[in-house]
Specification:
Pathway: Amino-acid biosynthesis; L-arginine biosynthesis; L-arginine from L-ornithine and carbamoyl phosphate: step 3/3. It comes from Mesorhizobium metallidurans STM 2683. It is found in: Cytoplasm. By secondary structure, this protein is mostly helical. It folds into three domains: 88 residues, Fumarase C, Chain B, domain 1 (Orthogonal Bundle), CATH 1.10.275.10; 231 residues, Up-down Bundle (Fumarase C, Chain A, domain 2), CATH 1.20.200.10; 100 residues, Ribonucleotide Reductase Protein R1, domain 1 (Orthogonal Bundle). It is built from 20 helices and eight strands. The strands form four sheets. It has a two-stranded antiparallel sheet with strand order 1-2. A hairpin with a 7-residue loop joins strand 6 and strand 7. Helix 11 runs parallel beside helix 13. The longest helix is centred in the N-terminal third of the chain and has 37 residues. The structure holds arginine. The site of arginine has 10 residues, from helix 7.
Length: 466
């Protein structure tokens, strides 16, 4: 007795009742998989209908089962259902309550089924629903960007490489870069939906079943395209969850880059945008401050979403076929990533919609840093027929001179420019102004306002069909 107590003190800790309590605590998933209740009940109703239709159970029992399951759905939604940790997970909680409600007929529901295919179908249904939610949210964000892009198709700002002003671009063009990124996220979501649109239900524990089930029927009833073709694969892979997490992580990374830009743009030093009060906070000690907390949190939460992807990849990488309890660890990653991503998308859509764009500050910055140097070089090539390398050299000397005189390139005198290359004429000033620089970049996908408007029209049309 005293021995048992001693060892229990060593590894038992707060688990007063010994190994059984520890086992229950490590084993139970009900605290989080209760989120699957609707999918679990949908799956069970579809399964019971199929069992009745194939004559495996009676129509009378099926009716009782379906009625009981619907009662449970109502109880859970009303908050009156009592979840029990002792009953481990959502599947057993529902089944135990069904037995209380309808008696022995409840025992027939689990014919030709296992919790292994049950949990696989539940989670698939949940992830598929979430993918549709993410697709809608992405469409909202893309629409917000299209509005801003149209409004600012001709607003010049500095374009950066290495975070150094490189060439002037338009803010509309910058917005459209995000339209492209989030549209690819949207297409990834759609692809993933296609692939996960298969039903594992009926794989039973792992090997299929000797009962004459109809897996096509249950797949169809659950809105899934067809049954999965291998029972071992059905219960053992979670690549649909990984794919969702990968999409979430990529999308979060896009959101995080945008968040970082918004944070930089809203500093007083940049002053390119002002966030609306609803998406910023004040400081408790420094009255002058307006902090971009929502953007910072989007950036911060990206770590969490990516962590969930890495976490589940690592859970899965060592798993021999087929099911192992390790896989119970899939759900919290998926649920938290989903909830986090939904929130990030909503916050970012709000920020993009509401932020005030300071076009004057953008324009000022666009002209700084000799940002039209490439335009000068291009002009020398186009007008004077200089080889690009030589034009690059001449331009470098012009920049050095501007630096020496502490003026912008377009403020150099014609004589100054001619002292560097005598062929330069006053026409060069037409490309040295930032507005003209962006206007000239009419190549497909370029920053010219005319091209930006073209791309806005293209995406508006495409989004309407998406
Ligand atoms: N709660 C379990 C899970 O999430 C359900 C499947 C249990 N299967 C089993 N063979 N113990 O994975």
């Amino acid at each position: 007795m005293s021995d048992k107590k001693a060892s229990n003190q060593m590894w038992g800790g707060r688990f007063a009742s010994g190994p059984a309590a520890i086992m229950e605590a490590i084993n139970a998933s009900i605290s989080f998989d209760r989120k699957l209740y609707a999918q679990d009940i949908r799956g069970s109703i579809a399964h019971s209908e199929m069992l009745a239709q194939t004559g495996i159970i009676s129509a009378a029992d099926q009716e009782k089962i379906a009625h009981g399951l619907n009662t449970i759905l109502t109880e859970i939604e009303a908050g009156t259902f009592e979840f029990s940790t002792r009953l481990e997970d959502i599947h057993m909680n529902v089944e135990a309550r069904l037995a209380e409600l309808i008696g022995p007929a409840a025992g027939r529901l689990h014919t030709a089924r296992s919790r292994n295919d049950q949990v696989a179908v539940d989670l698939r249904l949940w992830v598929k629903d979430e993918c549709f939610r993410v697709a809608e949210a992405l469409k909202g964000l893309i629409a917000a960007f299209l509005e801003r892009a149209e409004e600012h198709a001709a607003t010049v700002m500095p374009g950066f490489t290495h975070m150094q002003a490189a060439q002037p671009v338009t803010f509309g063009h910058h917005c459209m870069a995000y339209v492209e990124m989030f549209s690819r996220d949207l297409s990834r979501v759609r692809d993933a939906i296609e692939r996960m649109d298969e039903s594992p239900l009926g794989a039973a524990a792992l090997a299929g079943t000797s009962f004459p089930i109809d897996r096509h029927q249950t797949a169809k009833a659950l809105g899934l395209r067809e049954p999965m073709r291998n029972s071992l694969d059905s219960v053992s892979d979670r690549d649909f969850a990984l794919e969702f997490l990968a999409i979430a992580a990529i999308c979060a990374t896009h959101l995080s880059r945008l968040a970082e830009e918004i944070i930089i743009w809203s500093t007083p030093q940049f002053g390119f945008v002002r966030l609306s009060d609803s998406f910023s906070t004040g400081s408790s000690i420094m009255p002058q401050k307006k902090n971009p907390d929502a953007a910072e949190l989007v950036r911060g939460k990206t770590g969490r979403v990516t962590g969930h992807l890495v976490g589940l990849l690592i859970v899965m990488k060592g798993m021999p076929l087929t099911y192992g309890k390790d896989m119970q660890e899939d759900k919290e990653s998926v649920f938290d990533a989903a909830e986090t991503l939904d929130l990030m998308l909503a916050a970012m859509t709000g920020m993009v919609r509401d932020m005030t764009v300071n076009t004057a500050a953008m324009k000022r910055a666009a002209g700084a840093g000799y940002s039209t140097a490439t335009d000068l070089a291009d002009w020398l090539v186009r007008t004077l027929g200089l080889p690009f390398r030589e034009a690059h050299h001449v331009t470098g000397r012009a920049v050095a001179l501007a630096e020496e005189k502490k003026v912008r390139l377009d403020r150099l005198l014609l004589e100054d420019l001619q002292s560097i290359h005598p062929g330069i004429t006053a026409d060069v000033f037409s490309v040295l102004a930032v507005q003209n620089s962006v206007k000239s970049r009419t190549s497909f996908g370029g920053t010219a306002p005319s091209e930006v408007r073209k791309q806005v029209r293209y995406w508006k049309k495409r989004l309407a069909k998406a």
